[in-house]
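Final report, closing paragraph on structural work. Over the funding period we assembled a curated collection of sequence-structure pairs, and we close with a single example.
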Amino acid sequence: MSRLLRLTTGIAPSTIALTYGLGAVFGVAAQWAGMPLGMLLGAMIGIAVSSRLGLRPWGRDLAVPQKWRYVLVPVVGVAIGASFPEDFFEQAQHWWLSMAALLVFIPLAQWISYLVFRRLGGLTPATAYFAAMPGGFIESLEMGEKSGADMPMLIMLQFLRIAICILLIPIVFSLIEGHAVGASTGMVLGTAQGALTAWDVGLLVALGVSGWAVASRLKFPAAVLSGPLLFSGLAHALGWTHAAPPIWTILVTQWVLGTSLGVRLAGFTRGQFGLALGLSALSVAMMLLAAVGFALVLSGPVGEPVSAVILAFAPGGVSEMSLIALSLHLSAVFVTMHHLVRIILAVVTARLGQRLAGL
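Its predicted structure, as stored:
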């Protein structure tokens, strides 16, 4: 078994076990201390710092198979889908204005970030352009590589866009709300009040697996999340089930995601990381300020709190922004649907602009 695991992942089983174990320790400690999204941020920061400090058990870097996190991301999709009310389709009719506003926000956010990366960072046009995409992580790397972008810098900037949002938004919202965002006490999902039956478990697993498979076949954006979300959402909106994943599954998902992100964050050189961090922090701050402006205008017309609209426009990861929405008792459905549209528009906008810019 150990030999098979090493052959398929390229990582020693003992390294995988220790890395996840450390991630769990850091996550539990952060959760106990009341850190926003404690299991995710604690694991991410703890693993990244440990690696930077030179922790190399048995002479090997901390590492986990990055693809393993995909097995748990559907849990978030199914959990969000479980929050679809039976009047979902009626609610969605009020979102057309904020969806349309994304047509303005996406090119504006990319233009702002491009100016930061190109003029302040001195990056090449191709690197700055694709690093500025406010969504579509994989697509940005694929297009950037074909256009001759500086790939290490592009990867860092796109990764840090997501990581900074994951770190910054929960902290700011915690200060505003007066309690930890993402703490277990703040995440009460549908089944937190009762035990799941065998039928419930089987149905939720079926919704997650079939949703992922169908969305992947149809090449949906973020298929691992969007497919389970849409299948679960449809089942709950039609009243076929009221079951939802229990809280502990969300916390485990945070732990695995955080550990995986921490490993990826640890691999950059100090000089590259310093430049990328400064540029990304400024870029994200300016995009979030723009998101706040849009939220103040749109909150009333769409009938959602300002905080929900900010999350819907924030240039972070779909899974992580959705977890924050769940923990704040905001409409995770509203937030997630906007993020799926954001990814599609970011890719389409970048492709159109790429042709105009001759990249």
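Residues 130 and 140 are 5 Å apart (CA to CA). The chain has one domain: 72-357. We thank the funder for supporting this effort.
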